[in-house]
Amino acid sequence: DSTGVIVANGPLDDQLQKSLSLSSSQVVVPAKGKAVIGLKVTNTDSLSPGGHYAAITLTQASNNQSQVNLQSTISISVFIVKRGGEIVDVSITNQILKLSPFSIASSSTLTFKNTGNVHITPRASVTVRSIDGKTVYAKGISNQGSLSILPGKTLDDSFQITKIANLPIIPTKLKYIIEYRADNGSESRYNEIQAWYIPPLFILFVIILLIFTIILIVRRIKSPTLKTTGRKSKPEIIKKTNANLISDITPAPKKDKT
Question: d(Cα 203, Cα 138) in Å, to the nearest integer?
Answer without folding.
Answer: 22
